[in-house]
Amino acid sequence: xxxxRTNAKPSCEDCYFHHQLLCAVTSAGPCATxxxxxxxxxxxxxxxxxxxxxxxxxxxAWAFPSAEEQLALHA
Length: 75
Fold this sequence. Notes:
By secondary structure, this protein is an all-alpha fold.
């Protein structure tokens, strides 16, 4: 069973900036700069990895017909 801590809404008391006395926000509740207070300190949010795909096609998927193809189409 999951702990209630994972489903709890973030609060100022759980914020890194609040624990380090760096918070300048006076309103109650978490703000847009909320970062969880973790033992390893402040760390950036996890980002998606960028993976390059190998180009598989040697031809363009779609292109205008050539002059010869247009002539054959309308002949």
